[in-house]
Each structure stands twice: as structure tokens, then as C-alpha cells.
TrEMBL record:
GO molecular function: NF-kappaB binding
Coiled coil (UniProt feature): none
Family affiliation: Belongs to the COMM domain-containing protein 6 family.
The species this protein was found in: Gymnorhina tibicen (Australian magpie)
Limits of the COMM domain: 120-187
Protein role: Scaffold protein in the commander complex that is essential for endosomal recycling of transmembrane cargos; the commander complex is composed of the CCC subcomplex and the retriever subcomplex. May modulate activity of cullin-RING E3 ubiquitin ligase (CRL) complexes. Down-regulates activation of NF-kappa-B. Inhibits TNF-induced NFKB1 activation.
Protein name from the UniProt record: COMM domain-containing protein 6
Pfam families: COMM_domain
InterPro entries attached to this UniProt entry: COMM, COMMD4/6/7/8
Tree of life domain: Eukaryota
Amino acid sequence: AADKIRLIPQDFFAELCEQIIQHLNHKIPGVNTAELCQRIQTSGVEINIGDLAKIANILSFLFSTAARNNLSTEELVTTLGSAGSTLPKHAVQVIRHVWNEQGKAIAVSEDARTMATVGQFVDMKWKLGVAMSSDTCRSLKYPYVTVTLTVADPSGQITDKSFEMTIPQFKNFFRQFKEMASVLETV
């Protein structure tokens, strides 16, 4: 991971660290590594989304462990150095700065930890479509609904999950949402 961190320019690495801290503080639902990876690649750095996601997971673990152990900035930097870390100097400087500025605000209550193991709903998009024909059937005229859910998994990675439903399935889905809404109104 240290070799991949060396590739990331300091400003992008700082942005990644700050987004992770914001995620751990429940200010944002997750870190959009796909968008950040695209911007890093546009700047001329060759890195893939899988490597960036691994780095984000490592940093998230680092910051949450430091918060759980209530480490000061110097203790965190000393721990990084004593662990035989081969982190580049610019990365250690960014970690020191971000932790010094925002690290103490991380809430590590039991409720926050429990919620973090489930993931978080970010957005939902849907569209109505009609399948007109296929290679095995000339005339389908079959309506369907495509739903795309954007979720942040426990590590903070934002992903899209898509599925299709028939109209009867969608009506059942809609009915269940209405039931949830009515229950929430009584709370």
C-alpha cells in the first residue's frame, strides 16, 4: 500500500484523509473513491480504484483505531514510525495535519460503531422502461422498473446496487414503503 500511496499527489491524499475523517464523524455518508480515482487519473497518475479503495480502508482503520485509543497527534505519528512503516514523508505529514486539525472530533460511541457495521443509504434513483423485443420473442411490450440504490458500506466506500422489478413487484415495493412511512410518522 505504501508504494501506491507514494503515487498519490499530496493534495489528493489530503482530500482522501479529510473525507475519511468526515465519514467517521458522520458528516458525509462515505468516500466516493470512484470519483476521486478518476480525478487522480486525470492528473496523470496511474492508480486503479481497487488500490485507492484499499488505501481508504487502511486510513479509515488507522483513524478509527487512533480515535478509539484516544491517541494524540504525536502518539499517532510515533506509532506510525515505530510500526516499521514505509509511508512516504508527505503522507505522514498529511496524516499528522489532518489528525491534529480534525481527529479529536471523531465520535466513537457504541451506537456509532454499531451503525457503521451496517452501512448507510445515500440515494435512490429509478426509471420506468419497456422491453420491446428480444432475440427469442418478437413482441414483448413488457414494462419494468429499474431501481439504483447508492449505499455507503461500513468502510465508507460508496457503491451503486441496481435491480429490476416487474410492475406487480414494484407495486408491492411501493406499498411496503408507504407502510414504513406511516410507521415513521407515529414515532
